[in-house]
Amino acid sequence: MSPQEMAQRIGGGLLSFPVTHFDRDFAFDEAAYREHLGWLGGYDVAGLFAAGGTGEFFSLRPQEVPGIVRAAVEEAGDKVPVLAGCGYGTAIATDLAKEIEAAGAKGLLLLPPYLVNSTQDGLAAHVEAVCKATSLGVIVYNRDNAVLNEDTLARLCERNANLVGYKDGIGDVELMMRIYAKMGDRLTYVGGLPTAETFAPAYLEMGVTTYSSAIFNFMPEWALAFYQAVRARDKDAIMAGLKGFVLPYIALRNRNAGYAVSIVKAGMRAIGRSAGGVRPPLTDLTDAELQELTALIERANAGLKAAA
After folding, report:
1. Which of 67, 140, 172, 174 has the most CB atoms less than 10 A away?
2. Is 141 assigned a catalytic role?
3. In the annotation, is 305 catalytic?
4. What is the pLDDT of residues 101-114, one digit of tens each?
5. Smallest Cα–Cα separation from 272: which of 218, 214, 213?
6. 51: which DSSP letter?
7. Residue 136 DSSP class
8. DSSP H or E segment with residue 64
């Protein structure tokens, strides 16, 4: 699968960002992770992102990433392309890119470099170094301390044919429109704001045909139904999904810093498919918050069945 084929594939459907399973000692639980991917594999998604943000890439040792990716690739088989999170400083990111390619992934999601802020030239050098280190397709993730503008992206795309995707995690509508106006179909655009379902209807009008769904981890049928409503521009179904689940879910997520990942693992516990706790410095939801989330999930799933 060429970088361009990979990009076209992921742009045509919902994207799965699985959690990474840990045992009680916070070691990677490969058996549970594989079982989870096997379950999710029964549903139709366009791409699977191993060790991404929802997969707690930021808490993984660099040497853990290739093993997680390899497990995902083996479980996914030929059904869905596996992409992997990649990041930290440039030296580590380029090493990781090579190891991820050797593990069988079809692409990279390049997360912001660790800690520091930089100029457009510095960010471009970082992205280009990773692109040159691998033949895989690369998707850049605009968020936090790594915000590329449209001119920087255009120059990078001219020099790197395998830079094929752009994921937005900042919510700057003007910048998103400037990028889409300049780059058009040269890139595949991915919605990456937490929680992406909230922004999906508006972003679709700017060429963002897909998004990363963390909710898919514990409500795959609901997540796919909502995505289909977005692509069909079914406003009634979209608003029902937002009011009935997404907005109350966000209100719970916003109670504590770091809950964007913690609430996904709580969702796994709520449906009886625990992935373990989040690694520090993140913290898990309280028992009372877990009960709230469980009730919310049950109501949303009941509504989905009633509408079927």
Report:
1. 140
2. yes
3. no
4. 999 999 999 999 98
5. 218
6. T
7. S
8. none
